[in-house]
């Protein structure tokens, strides 16, 4: 759902915040983040951010820990110079779990002691203004001595100190106390603590003597003591080791500081300093890069460090420089010059809280909790998920370096957000910094990611390269394909948002808490006004619902946690399959001709390359020329000029080397050409081929069993997608037409087609039918005027029906004829209508059909005394039923031209003689005597005889009911051909509409032949449905049988018919048979309460025989379309009973 937001004055990130110059210039790098108190005190090339006091404090956020250290040191210095005993403990331990504070606090203390006058506003960094003012008062008259000892800088062996005092001999120093004494008081101090054996720790008295060398306060800063101690265990001193002496010194120093004001000790101890001994031990402790690990006893070193921990916990005043609640403040202060007033923070927090709360089911519970609003306000401009991930998840990774690592990630993100000025797809219209801003397109971020991958022992580099980001212009990561999809629709780059957030949530060693949920992705990425469902779609696409953007290493199917793994997904295997080009081409062709164009009655020409490959004929109606993409792919309709389309349209040839000539039957051509979307279909064919390669060679791809189980579904989805893409790619249809200026080629009209649920061929026909460009089998008869205006091109007075059909193929102004039946119906209508002038002659039967009134007028004008009834081979035009497309069937432009052109015969009604002309008929005189077969009477004319009938005994036929006047006539009638049975059936399975059309046409043809044989007409024979057999096969045969049973009782005429059912299912070693015999209603009730046979048979079919009563007419077959699902393919057989009408019984003569 979308959460609409009202008008708001909330500024974007770029409008609200002002990054520091070194951030915008990309200068925050390792060296500028590597805080080192020892280098600040004694080094030469220290970055200004640490060395320059003013710059340092400008970049330092006054956390409670930092102000606590400054306050404690200042108070002890003030107390010393006042001669008072301080309340603060003399030993301060800095302890933090997130880092970025302990070394920083040490440097802050060092600058306070050495350069306090350069701190711009000391009150900002003390816990009371009074302390700051009192300390300032001492600056002009008093100074503070400092010592900085870092255990990783000094090996426990004789070395010269880092700082050299001018005019003094510089001794080699081996101990902590020696270094501290020299740093504070020079050689004199070193001599005080080194009298006698310089490896034996000084006690409190010697320390008192040492600190008495000056009245100035001293601040001693120590770091990495545990690391130094571990190596000092290898140096022997008397009966022990130097580490033991060092512990003695530290204990004496801590005690001295607790009882005196002139010394303050600041020591940093990380929370895990005493837990990860291996890390401590492996550090390089040597000043000159020589490592002294050979004689270290690990058990002794562990014991020593544990003792140091015990001492530290007893005497130290612990301060945590950076609390969790300060992390966002520290990061914000380092990255930005300015801060934001509370009101704006509250507005943004409220806006996002309302967004999450309004659709709480789409986000984690934490997003809509009351404290969530305060959390957003606290972390702004960082989204809470950024701070949580950096401080509670990745900070446990050793190479991350905690606060330093967070800044190294956030600095390039900020630089990119501001360098883009909020205009790029990843940075536009932003109010918060997100996890997806920590993107590997920045070299520093990429480097840190690789380091983390090594720490967690998970090689995610291939995942980043294939799914998130790489610099290869020829290898687009999958997320960018998904981004393109959304950006083209005016949406943000959701692919990059999802995968970048997920990779950071996958950086956990082991599998326990790796990954994240979908609601967390939405929480970490979505902003008010965006459509949440888009994120769901993007996640689905990245997981494989879209093969174009499916990730290779992203897992999370079936609503599981989203996470990156080093195990490839099924999509990666499919992508690597690399099928042969020929295999892809074959799949594309197979889909086109079998699935998209299958079942067509049209003649299909597959990708012809020359004009002779397409016949110039009208014998087969509707020639569909399919052009394959390898031959022609068009983006605009005009792209067909000088292509195979126009060449075939214009010319024809009998053979490859035959002479080319203008094509005669242009109006029988339909061209189907692919558009540019065929590239997507080809890509999908490649995917289907790839899936099959993986299925055929599973061992080559290292997939697990569960992944192999996904392949059949992937295959079926690809096959279905491919069929739809092929259908939609073939969107250009060209047909002949009268020339016009707007045509892509003279005489060719263009149509765009869109396929929804039908086959491609049906979509083509439907489009052309809707546009009035084709004549299909269900078209009614056209008017006589249409025939005359479009087809009548007679050289003489007549045209055969074949010539009329040919004329349709020649005339581009006419519709394309796809079935002969509408033409036959049109010719019959032109003959039968009373106001039509046309007449019809069948040479095969020597019979003509004319208008009787026109006949009478002709002979009246000739003054010839003949009647229409006397014309033996002429029939009233209205009696014409069957018109064939044949050269023996001819249409005349009038009754008169027919009479003048054909041999009309005249029959004497008395003697029955046939005469060839009206003159012979007029001159004919016959002398006959007709005897009545049942009485002795004789007659001189036929008319007298017929008036005499009936006479005597009648003889009825027991089969057809006809009455005969004589027994001889009845005997001659036998065997009686009535009643008759006609059967129509399908040759192969077909959908119900096609099956009904096929059978109806077959029965009509057979009935027509019968009527020819018996000189009958449609109205003289009664047709009724005698039996209907339906056969369904396939996995759902039983289910469809149930559906038919359910529908049958609801149809008029089928409730009481007799029904038989046979069902058979074959298994590997058995088979099941079911039989039923009863009424239609009983059939429905029986199947309703009969359980479907269990299991999955190898083959099954169901056969239903409907024994219809005589009340069900043949034309009621359309009932089947109501009781059989439209997409079901069936085999059908129909048995029809034919019997004579009562009138026919009296008139029909075999």
Q: Describe it for me?
A:
It is a single chain. With about 1150 residues, this protein is of the alpha+beta class. It folds into six domains: about 35-320, no CATH class; about 340-565, no CATH class; about 580-660 and about 670-770, no CATH class; about 775-905, no CATH class; about 930-975, no CATH class; about 980-1145, no CATH class. It is built from 46 helices and 36 strands. Strands 30, 31, 32, 33, 34, 35 and 36 form a seven-stranded antiparallel beta sheet that branches. A five-stranded parallel beta sheet has the order 2-3-6-1-7, sandwiched between helices. Strands 10-11-14-15-16 form a five-stranded mixed beta sheet, with helices on both faces. Strand 4 (about 235) and strand 5 (about 240) form a beta hairpin. Helix 27 (about 570-575) crosses helix 30 (about 680-695). The longest helix has 22 residues, at about 990-1015. The radius of gyration is 51 Å and the shape is elongated. The two termini are about 80 Å apart. The model is unreliable at about 1-5 and about 270-295 (pLDDT under 50).
């Amino acid at each position: 759902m979308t959460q609409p937001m009202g008008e708001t004055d909330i500024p974007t990130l770029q409008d609200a915040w002002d990054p520091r110059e070194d951030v915008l210039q990309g200068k925050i790098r390792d060296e500028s983040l590597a805080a080192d108190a020892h280098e600040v005190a004694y080094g030469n090339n220290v970055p200004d951010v640490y060395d320059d006091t003013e710059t340092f404090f400008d970049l330092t956020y006054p956390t409670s820990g930092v102000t606590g250290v400054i306050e404690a040191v200042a108070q002890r210095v003030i107390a010393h110079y006042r001669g008072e005993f301080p309340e603060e403990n003399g030993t301060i331990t800095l302890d933090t779990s997130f880092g970025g504070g302990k070394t920083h606090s040490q440097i802050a203390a060092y600058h306070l002691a050495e350069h306090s006058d350069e701190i711009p506003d000391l009150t900002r960094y003390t816990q009371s203004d009074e302390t700051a003012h009192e300390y300032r008062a001492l600056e002009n008259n008093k100074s503070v001595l400092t010592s900085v000892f870092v255990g990783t800088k000094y090996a426990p062996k004789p070395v010269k100190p880092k700082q050299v005092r001018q005019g003094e001999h510089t001794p080699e120093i081996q101990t902590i106390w020696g270094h501290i004494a020299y740093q504070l008081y020079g050689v004199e101090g070193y001599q005080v603590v080194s009298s006698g054996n310089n490896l034996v720790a000084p006690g409190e008295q010697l320390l008192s003597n040492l600190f008495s060398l000056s009245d100035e306060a001293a601040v001693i800063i120590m770091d990495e003591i545990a690391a130094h101690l571990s190596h000092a265990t290898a140096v022997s001193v008397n009966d022990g080791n130097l580490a033991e002496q060092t512990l003695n010194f530290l204990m004496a120093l801590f005690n001295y500081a607790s009882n005196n004001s002139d010394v303050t000790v600041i020591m940093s101890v990380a929370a895990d300093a005493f837990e990860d001994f291996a890390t401590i031990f492996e550090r390089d402790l040597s000043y000159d890069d020589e490592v002294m690990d050979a004689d270290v006893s690990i058990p002794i070193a562990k014991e020593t460090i544990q003792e140091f921990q015990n001492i530290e916990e007893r005497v130290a005043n612990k301060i945590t420089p950076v609390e969790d609640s300060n992390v966002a403040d520290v990061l914000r202060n380092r990255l930005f010059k300015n801060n934001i007033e509370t009101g704006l923070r509250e507005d943004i927090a409220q806006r996002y809280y309302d967004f999450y709360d309004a659709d709480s089911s789409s986000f984690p519970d934490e997003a809509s909790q009351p404290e969530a609003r305060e959390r957003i306000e606290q972390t702004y401009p960082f989204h809470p998920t950024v701070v949580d991930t950096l401080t509670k998840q990745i900070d446990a990774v050793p190479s991350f370096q905690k606060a330093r690592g967070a800044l190294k990630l956030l600095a390039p993100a900020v630089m990119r957000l501001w360098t883009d000025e909020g205009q790029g797809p990843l940075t536009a219209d932003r109010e918060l910094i997100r996890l997806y801003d920590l993107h590997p397109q920045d070299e520093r971020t990429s480097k840190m990611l690789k380091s983390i991958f090594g720490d967690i022992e998970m090689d995610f580099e291939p995942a980043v390269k294939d799914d998130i980001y790489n610099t290869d212009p020829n290898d687009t990561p999958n997320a960018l394909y998904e981004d393109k999809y959304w950006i083209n629709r005016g949406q943000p780059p959701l692919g990059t948002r999802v995968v970048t957030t997920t990779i950071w949530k996958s950086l956990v060693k082991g599998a326990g808490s790796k990954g994240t949920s979908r609601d967390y992705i939405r929480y970490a990425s979505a902003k008010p006004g965006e459509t949440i469902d888009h994120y769901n779609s993007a996640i689905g696409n990245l997981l494989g619902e879209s093969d174009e953007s499916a990730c290779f290493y992203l897992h999370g199917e079936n609503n599981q946690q989203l996470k990156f793994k080093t195990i490839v997904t099924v999509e990666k295997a499919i992508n690597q399959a690399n099928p042969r080009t020929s295999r892809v081409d074959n799949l594309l062709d197979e889909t086109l001709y079998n699935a998209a164009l299958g079942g067509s009655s049209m003649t299909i020409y597959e990708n012809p390359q020359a004009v002779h490959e397409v016949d110039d004929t009208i014998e087969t109606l509707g020639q569909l020329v399919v052009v394959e993409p390898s031959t022609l792919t068009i983006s605009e309709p005009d792209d067909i000029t000088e292509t195979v389309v126009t060449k075939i349209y214009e010319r024809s040839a009998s053979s490859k080397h035959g002479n080319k000539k203008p094509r005669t039957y242009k109006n029988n051509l339909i061209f189907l050409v692919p558009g540019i979307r065929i590239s997507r279909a080809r890509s999908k064919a490649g995917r289907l081929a790839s899936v099959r390669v993986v299925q055929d060679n599973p061992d080559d791809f290292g997939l697990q069993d569960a992944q192999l189980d996904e392949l059949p579904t992937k295959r079926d989805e690809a096959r279905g997608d491919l069929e739809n893409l092929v259908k939609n790619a073939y969107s250009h249809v060209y047909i002949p037409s009268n020339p016009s200026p707007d045509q892509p080629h003279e005489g060719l009209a263009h149509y765009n087609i869109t396929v929804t649920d039908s086959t491609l061929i049906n979509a083509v026909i439907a489009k052309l039918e809707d546009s009035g460009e084709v004549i299909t089998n269900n078209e009614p008869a056209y008017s006589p005027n249409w025939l005359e205006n479009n087809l009548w091109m007679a050289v003489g007075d007549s045209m055969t029906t074949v010539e009329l059909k040919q004329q349709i193929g020649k005339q581009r102004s006419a519709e394309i004829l796809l079935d002969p039946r509408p033409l036959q119906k049109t010719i019959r209508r032109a003959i039968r209508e009373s106001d039509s002038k046309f007449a019809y002659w069948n040479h095969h039967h020597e019979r003509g059909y004319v208008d009787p009134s026109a006949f009478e007028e002709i002979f009246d004008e000739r003054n010839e005394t003949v009647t229409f009834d006397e014309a033996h081979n002429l029939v009233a035009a209205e009696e014409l039923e069957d018109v064939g497309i044949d050269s023996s069937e001819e249409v005349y432009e009038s009754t008169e031209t027919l009479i003048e052109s054909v041999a009309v015969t005249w029959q004497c009604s008395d003697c029955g003689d046939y005469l060839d002309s009206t003159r012979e008929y007029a001159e004919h005189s016959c002398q006959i005597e007709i005897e009545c077969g049942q009485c002795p009477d004789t007659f001189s004319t036929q008319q007298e005889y017929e008036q005499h009938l009936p006479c005597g005994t009648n003889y009825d036929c027991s089969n057809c009911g006809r009455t005969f006047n004589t027994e001889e006539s009845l005997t001659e009638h036998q065997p009686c051909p009535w009643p008759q049975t006609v059967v129509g059936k399908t040759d192969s399975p077909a959908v119900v509409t096609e099956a009904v059309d096929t059978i109806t046409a077959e029965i009509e043809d057979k009935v027509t032949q019968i009527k020819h044989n018996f000189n009958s007409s449609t109205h003289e024979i009664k047709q009724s449905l005698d039996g209907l057999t339906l056969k369904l096969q396939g996995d759902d045969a039983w289910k469809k049988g149930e559906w038919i049973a359910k529908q049958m009782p609801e149809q008029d005429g089928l409730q009481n018919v007799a029904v038989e059912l046979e069902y058979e299912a074959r298994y590997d070693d058995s088979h099941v048979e079911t039989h039923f015999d009863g009424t239609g209603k009983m059939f429905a009730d029986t199947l309703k309460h009969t359980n479907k046979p269990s299991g999955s048979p190898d083959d099954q079919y169901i056969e239903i025989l409907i024994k219809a009563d005589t009340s069900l007419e043949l034309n009621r077959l359309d009932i089947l379309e109501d009781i059989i699902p439209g997409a079901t393919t069936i085999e059908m057989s129909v048995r029809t009973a034919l019997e004579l009408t009562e009138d026919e019984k009296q008139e029909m003569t075999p």
